[in-house]
Amino acid sequence: MTIDERYLQLVYRVPSTTSRARVAVWRELKRLGALYIQQAVCVLPDRPGVRERLDKVRERIDELGGESMIFVLTEVEEREHRALVESFRENSAKEYAEIVEECETKFFKEIEFERFRENYTFEEAEEIRQDLEKLRRWLRKVEARDWMGAPGRELAHEKVAECERLLDLFEADVYERVGDPGTV
User: Fold this and answer.
1) Rounded to whole angstroms, how far apart are CA atoms 55 and 58?
2) Cβ 29 vs Cβ 55: under 8 Å
3) d(Cα 135, Cα 163) in Å, to the nearest integer?
4) pTM of the model
């Protein structure tokens, strides 16, 4: 039995004179959410926006003196489809877990450390706010390429929301200790 979901398969070659070119292409494809089947062969679900982004990667490959071909896989055997879906889910679940870890091991600890140091400044609060924005952007990117509904999304959202609550409390303490920044 075959599954009707369409996939895009990219097969490419980049000159091997320098690893920089190969790494650049690999990074772009990983950012896109590509699943590597083997070296220089990857698969993506044929979803809105994916083809356009993949075409940009192909332009980059051309710029680097490489070659690429895209194949549209219209009928995938059920076994292979299950393997692809599971691999896409695993990749997204790992990324959600990394976000949770970033919240717990860095963000939470940063606020705890600044409280310990009694570093209640607007500059510090702003730096931490920027870290929160990075977490939010990261979460949006992971969600955008979580095509298969990976586990961990809800927990990642909860942890990012907890980061925001902790930062709000820290900012309130800064305001209470330092006063209104507009009147200083």
Assistant:
1) 5
2) no
3) 9
4) 0.87
Joined tokens for residue 46: 């044929």
Q: How far apart are alpha carbons 99 and 143 in whole angstroms?
A: 12
What is d(CA 184, CA 169) in angstroms, rounded to the nearest whole number? 21
Cα radius of gyration (the chain)? 22
Per-residue burial over 85-109, b if 16 or more Cβ lie within 10 Å, else e, is: beebbebbbebbeebbebbeeebee
Residue pointed to by tokens 């140091």: 117
Q: For residue 74, give the 3-state DSSP assignment.
A: coil
Q: 3-state SS of 31-93? A: HHCCEEEECCEEEEECCCCHHHHHHHHHHHHHHCCCEEEEEEECCEEHHHHHHHHHHHHHHHH
Q: Are 22 and 16 spatial neighbours (Cβ–Cβ below 8 Å)? A: yes
27-36 pLDDT, tens digit per residue, is 999 999 999 9
Encoded tokens for 41: 């062969």
CB 51, CB 58: distance < 8 Å: no
